[in-house]
Amino acid sequence: MSMKIGKVLTVVLVVLILIQLIPGPSHENPPVTGTPKWDSPRTEELFKRSCANCHSNETIWPWYSTIAPLSWIINLDVSVGRSKFNVSEWGRPGKNDGDEAAGELRHGKMPPWFYMPAHPEAKLTAAEKDELVKGLAATFGDKSAEKEKKEEK
Ligand code: HEC
Q1: Running DSSP on this structure, what letter comes out for residue 66?
Q2: What sequence ranges are listed for the domain Haem-binding (predicted)?
Q3: For range 126-132, the mean pLDDT
Q4: Mutate to test the pocket of ligand 1, among 47, 50, 54 (most ligand atoms within 8 A of CB)
Q5: Which 3 state secondary structure label does DSSP give 89?
Q6: Cα dihedral sign for 46, 52, 58, 61?
Q7: What ligand 1 atom has the least distance to the C-alpha of 47?
Q8: Alpha carbon distance 51, 6 (integer Å)
Q9: Count of alpha carbons within 13 angstroms of residue 15, beta-carbon side
């Protein structure tokens, strides 16, 4: 029995070592090609704290972001996050869903829950959250509030 557990652990360890050899994408941040006109420096500051790691080209990559399989999850989050909404490529053609940002935050969908334990700085007080929702709406518009208003009528 214990021999079996030893074998399983050895296999897990070997696999963990081997997956480190799979090359990941570079963590060099792409250039900033456009920025939105923030309604206030405070909105930008709160966004930087809570959202910018996945929604800008100014990602701060933590040391563990190079260790597989964590790196795979982090790389995916940043690339999918940037593809949907990127404040460093404001004005680019294609998808850039700023007008959904206020709604995502208001409904507690962003930042993703699994991001929070390792990023205490991203946690907003109720007052800060309210400030950021209003700032995002003022900067990008607020699609979900418009929709909810229509549904009330
Ligand atoms: C850990 C990375 C991460 C952080 C931090 C993060 N997001 Fe996201 N965000 C994503 C990913 C991944 C997606 C795409 C998948 C999804 O919609 O759930 C996304 C999607 C979005 C979208 C597009 C929604 C859509 O359906 O098109 C908006 C808008 C958004 N996030 C806003 C925010 C705001 C505002 C914050 C900060 C309060 C934030 N995000 C923080 C990773 C992140």
Answers
A1: G
A2: 13-140
A3: 98
A4: 54
A5: strand
A6: positive
A7: 37
A8: 42
A9: 7
Angle at 121 between CA 126 and CA 75, to 5 degrees: 115
Q: How far is the CA of 96 from the centre of ligand 1 (A)?
A: 11
At residue 80, what is the residue type? V
Closest CA to 132 of 52, 63, 59, 76: 52
Q: Is the pTM of this model over 0.90?
A: yes
Of 46, 33, 29, the C-alpha closest to 101 is 46
Distance CA(101)–CA(91), nearest Å, equals 16
- What DSSP assignment string belongs to 26-64? --PPPPP-B----S-HHHHHHHHHHTHHHHSS-----GG
Are 135 and 46 in contact by the 8 Å Cβ rule? The answer is yes
pLDDT given for residue 25 in this prediction: 87
Cβ distance 55 to 87 under 8 Å?
Answer: yes
How far, in Å, from the CA of 16 to the mean position of ligand 1?
29
- State the greatest distance between any 2 C-alpha atoms of the chain, in Å, as a whole number: 68
pLDDT range class, residue 24, cuts 50, 70, 90: confident
